[in-house]
Amino acid sequence: MLAYGASANQVDEIARMRKSTILECLVKFYDAIETLYTRDYLRKPTPEDLQRLLQKAEA
Known about the structure:
- The radius of gyration is 18 Å and the shape is elongated.
- The chain is built from 3 helices and no strands.
- Helix 1 packs across helix 2.
- The protein has 59 residues and is mainly α.
- It starts with 7 loop residues before the first helix and ends with a helix.
- The protein has helices at residues 8-15, 19-41, 47-58.
- The protein has one domain (8-58).
């Protein structure tokens, strides 16, 4: 669904899974990604992060 922008109905036909099961798995996937990456990537930038990004943009 994520890679090809397919709907749950399209995946239903390919994977032979119910729409509700597909959506439940997608929610679990999103939760896992959020749990793994929130601390490092989905946090507010620190002053050091902002300075590094500004220097990179100038270059």
